[in-house]
Every structure is written in structure tokens, then in C-alpha cells.
Amino acid sequence: MAAYLNEAMSDLAADLAAGLKRLRKGYVDAAEALVRVVDPSREYPYEFVVYRLTEFRPAAKGMPTGVMSGQSLRTDLLRLMLDICDSTTIRVSDYAEPVHDTTSLARRFHVSTKTIQRWRRRGLPARRLVFRDGKRRVAFLESSVQWFTKDRQGQIQRSMNFSQMSETERDDIIRRAKRMAAATHCRLSDVVKRLAARTGRAMETIRYTIRKHDTDNPASAIFPYLTAPLGNEEKELIYRRFLRGVPVPLLAKRYRRTRGSIYRIINEMRARQLLKRPIAYVDSEEFHDPAKEAEILHESRPPRLPANAHKPPAELPPYLRALYTVPLLSQERERELFRRYNFLKYKADTLRRQINVNHIRTSQLKQIEALLLRANAVKNQIIRANLRLVVSIAKKHVGGAQTLFELISDGNVSLMRAVEKFDYSRGFRFSTYSSWAIMRNFARSVPRERYQLDRFTTGNDEILDIAAGLKTYDPNEVNLAELRESIDVVLAQLTPTERSIVIDHYGLSEDGVTKTLEQLAGRLGLSKERVRQIEIAAFRKLRALMHPEEVVS
Fold first, then answer.
1. Nearest 5 degrees, angle CA 48-CA 54-CA 55?
2. CATH fold of 493-553, please?
3. Which of 76, 146, 214, 413 has its CA 20 to 30 A from that of 232?
4. Beta strand pairing status for 136-141 and 127-130?
5. Would residue 399 be called left, alpha or beta, if left means φ above 0 and alpha means ψ between -120 and 50 degrees?
6. Which stretches within 110-202 are classed as H helix?
7. Distance CA 49, CA 40 (A)
8. What confidence tens digit (pLDDT) does each residue in 304-332 have?
């Protein structure tokens, strides 16, 4: 859901959106009715808002205290209307009055769609309804429009006067745009800037005029490539190049698209990747109780290594000896981590089911990805605390064709799979379950392909910790493509410069060629020391995402 100004309203919106579907349209209509009577200069208690929306007076016990300003309440009510609409299917035909979408409303008042968006921010109530063509769009009831415009006739007229354009002026803009595009091969954004400077018109007005001409006249379109939709392969390529550090302005120039359209393509591909990705978790009844969420997500301070901890075996190499610096998990701490791990994935999967590829909300995608990153961070805590178990079991199976390090690598894959399957609610210790899973796997012959992941990561310890990403690996299907996708998703959290440095320095680009810091400095026009500082900052950011408990402690 969108960010609310009042936390209590955010909780109320979530509760109403999860309520009975037959009641949700009534909640939306009641919210608009309340918008119309709220005085921005007054304050309102939460109990009053709940009663106006639901006609139910909640018990005072547990009720959020304090009051909300009328201005913030009105803003939150407008957001609540959209969020509840998104949680169900409300059709235009459900209303016995005319309904307008953004384009038709802009045409009615002779203003741009940007002006309609400004009116929404000033209080014009909007819904997201399913129109007769089957598509869900932002919609405005005729009664809502009349209420909003009633006391704003002067403001509406100024908007109309500013945006209204004569046929002669429109033809002149189209003629100039054609000449510029043909003579200089300018992009739409360049043409818009030049014409806005010469005509004194707003850039948005110029852009709207050109785009409308191209839509209405595809045979003589000035920028025909903007009206032709991109195929899935081109979209995938744009998304991959963005993840590998290519800046959006450069992608827009290369594909002769606007920056906004590139961002829309990126978000569409992010949504499709999330929809394709399996999110497996062990469900629990308490996950469906909103009152339990705060308790489940509460993070206690990680345990410290006891002073009398066992020393690692002398024959182990340094990076395996480091495993003994990670404290073991108590039964209570283990249950806490598994509970949180599965709940985070449950939350992510619940939100993912609400994704609509025809209407993508960036905030929704960020929330899902953040939940998956947090889940993966918890998974890493569990795995690191149990890696000693893998070493212990692997040492007992040395003697065959496989070396100790091959056995440890394969045991780690079995451990990761065990984390995915373990049901913490049964009361057993994870070490019992994972030991059985690891030993059963060692008892079978292990195909050579199972070691691709281990060989791929050799020598890149810093990337190793990040490579787990958001992907859930099945040991029977592990391959480099999955690892590549996982790295891409995690690196997308960095800035373009940070992403470019990490990718090129560690050979993660398509050609696999590594570059020195000196080479990167020359390409970026920075000093070698500055490039090194940016890389360190990038890894610090990634470690904070993947292991937030290390930042807190």
C-alpha cells in the first residue's frame, strides 16, 4: 500500500482491504463522503473515522490514541480509496452515474492529464475501476467532479486558459517538430525542450500535443517508434542492461524512448520476474493474525560467542576456522528465526499475488523485494550458525572420490534446502532434521554438475555472500543462470555507478572480463582511490541488506 501520513490509517486501510469483498465498495464510497466533510483546519479522533467508514464503534481498549489533522486525514482517505479498489474488482457499471477516466476528463475541461493529476493532489477523489474494455484505470465519478469543481471555477478556468491551444498554434508546433526530428534526428525530449523555449508553452503541453498527434495519425507520426510497443525480448534486454549498470538516460537514447517509458519497462520486468519466482514457505495459522505481526518481526539482539567456546580443529583452513566464530543457536532463538523467515516470505507472497502487470506500483514492488531481502538475511543467519554441522558430517564421509571441500560444498546445498523445508512448529531441533538431510544426500552419488556453483564462486569471497540474493536454490537444479539472476536482483539495489564498478571489477558482465581499479578510474573519470571508496561503500550497503543483524549489533 502507499505510504500513509497517519500510521493508524495505514492499519485501517489494511484491515478494510482484507475484509469482506461485498463491503469494500461501501468503504470506498464512505471514504469519499468523509473527504467532503473533513475540515483541513480541524483535528479528528481515530474512533470517529472508523465509525464513519464502517458504521461500527470499536472497543476503546486497544484503540489508537491521539488525533489526526484534517489535512493529513483527507490525504490518507484519498489513498485509502485507491488501495481498497486495488484489493477487489469494482466495475464502472457498479455506479449509476457517468464515470470518466483521466484522458476523457482532461478532454472535457481542455486541460492536460498532468493538470488532472494536480487536481487529484488538491482533493479530487479518484477510484481505480474496471472499465468496459476490461482494463483497470483511475476513474472519477461525475458527482466527484462536480463537487470538486463547484467552488474552484476560477482555478479551473485558469487551467483551461493556460492549456487551451488554437488549431493554428497546434499545427505550427507539429510542423516545427517534424522539421526538427527529420533534420537533427532529435529525441522527443530534445524537441519538446526546444519548442517550449521558442513558444513559451509548458513542456508537458508540447509533449502532450506531439504524442496526441502521433496517436491519432500513426501513418504520419513524428516519432513512430514511440507508438510501436516493444517486444518481450527487447524489454528483457533493456532490463538486463539496466541491472548491469547501464544508466536509464543512455537506455532511453539507445532505444529512442523517453526516460519514463524505460522506467515503466523496468518496473514491468521486475513485476514479471517476481511473478515467475517461486516463493515457498511453511505456513502457520498465526501468520494470518495481524495482531501477531509485530511480535513475529521483533528482532532480539543476536547471541554472543561464549568465552568457553570450542576451538576449531587445527587442520581446517582459515575460512573454515572462521565458522567457529559464529555462535550456535539456542532452541528459542532457532524457532524465532525460522518463524520470522517463513512469515516474511508469506508476506511477500501475499503481496505478490496482488501485482497487476497492467497497473504496476513501484512502491509495491519495492515492498515485496524488501521482504524477500529480509527473509534471505534471516536464512543466512540460520545457515551460518549451522555450517559447522556440515563440516562435522563431511569429515566423517571423506575417503571416497570426493575431497573434503567437495563434500562441504554439497553439504551446504543440502543445508540450504533443509532450511526451506523445515517446519519449526513441530518442536524438533533443526540440527536433527538437517543432519538427516545432509547424510542422506551424502549416501547417494552426487552428479558432477552439482558443483558448478562452488567452482563458479572460487576467488570471489565478497561476491559469494551476496550471491544468495533472493533466489531459492534447488540442489537438483542449481545452475549458473540462476546465480546470475540472483546477483542481478541484489545488485539492482545499488546506484548505477556502484553497480558498474562491482560488475566490471569482478567480471560479472556478459563478457566476463575483469577490470582493475585503475582501468575503472580512467573510464569513469575518477581517481583510483575514489573508485576504491565507492566499491567499499557498495559492499557495505549490500552487507547491510543481506545481514542487517550485523549492522544493528
1. 70
2. Arc Repressor Mutant, subunit A (1.10.10)
3. 214
4. antiparallel
5. left
6. 113-121, 142-150, 153-163, 167-184, 188-199
7. 14
8. 766 666 676 666 677 677 777 788 888 88
